[in-house]
Amino acid sequence: MTRKFVAEFIGTFTLVLIGCGAIVLAGFGVVGQEGIAWAFGLSVVAMTYAIGPVSGCHVNPAVSFGAWIAGRMSTAEMLGYWGAQCAGAIVAAGVLLVIASGAASYSLAQHGLGQNGYGLGHSPGDYNLASCAMFEVVATFIFVITVLGVTQKNSPYQLAGLAIGLTLTAIHIVGIQVTGVSVNPARSLGPAVWVLGDAIGQLWLFIAAPMVGAGLAGCAFRVKLLSEDG
């Protein structure tokens, strides 16, 4: 079990450092929205093949929650995954802050750490709370459906990493202007812990909405609506 938790820590650390790093260190002016989307997606592809055999590479509390709802993991295991994922995200955001602070032009208050947000001045496209909540629920549902689908019995598991990573990339291409894309409570928690202020105040949405979407996806597999043996 310890190996699984270590793997989840490393995987989530990598996702947040690379994904949020693309926002903070490269940004829209260098790599653009598509580059940021690929940074998140490719980091998941890499980690799926690197740590997938150990922990399944959830690197996302919503994915673990969906797997738990689907009956694929125990409560104790899920809680352990959550702890490792959140710790990995917080440490990664801290490392990113140290790196970014090495540039004289960087300001935490002005540039942030790639935190998620809703509403005027917080959503990249100034989308309101309702739009952001709807996007996060639906996008997480699609993402967790993909994860649970490609990892079920008789699926082409060799391609699972590509399917999961490409889905996350597509979600980011569509949704970065809406919320900055969470679909992952740990990914949102990491930057928010260091940025504080409104990032912490709005964090509730990026915990609640992904969990709702993941819960719906898990239920679809729990009742065998989308299961291969349904």
List the helices and strands and how they pair.
Elements: H1 2-26, H2 32-55, H3 61-69, H4 75-100, H5 108-111, H6 129-150, H7 160-179, H8 185-195, H9 198-201, H10 203-222
Helix pairs in contact: 1-2, 1-4, 1-8, 2-7, 3-4, 3-6, 3-10, 4-8, 6-7, 6-10, 8-10
- CATH class equals Mainly Alpha
Named CATH architecture = Up-down Bundle
CATH superfamily: Glycerol uptake facilitator protein
Q: Which overall shape is indicated by the principal axes computed on the Cα atoms? A: globular
Structural class by SSE content: mainly alpha
Q: Give the number of DSSP strands.
A: 0
Helix content: over 70%
Please state the CA-atom Rg, rounded to the nearest Å.
Answer: 16 Å
- pLDDT < 50 stretches: none
Main sheet? none
Total of domains? 1
Mean pLDDT metric: 95
CATH fold annotation: Glycerol uptake facilitator protein
- Estimated share of beta-strand residues: under 5%
SSE string, helices as H and strands as E: HHHHHHHHHH
Q: In angstroms, what separates the terminal alpha carbons?
A: 30 Å
List keywords for this structure.
230 residues; mainly alpha; Glycerol uptake facilitator protein
Q: What is shown here, in short?
A:
This protein is an all-alpha fold and 230 residues long.
What does this structure look like?
The protein is mainly alpha-helical and 230 residues long. It has a single domain (2-103, 113-222), classed as Glycerol uptake facilitator protein, CATH 1.20.1080. 72% of the residues lie in helices and 0% in strands. The protein is built from ten helices and no strands. The chain has helices at residues 2-26, 32-55, 61-69, 75-100, 108-111, 129-150, 160-179, 185-195, 198-201, 203-222.
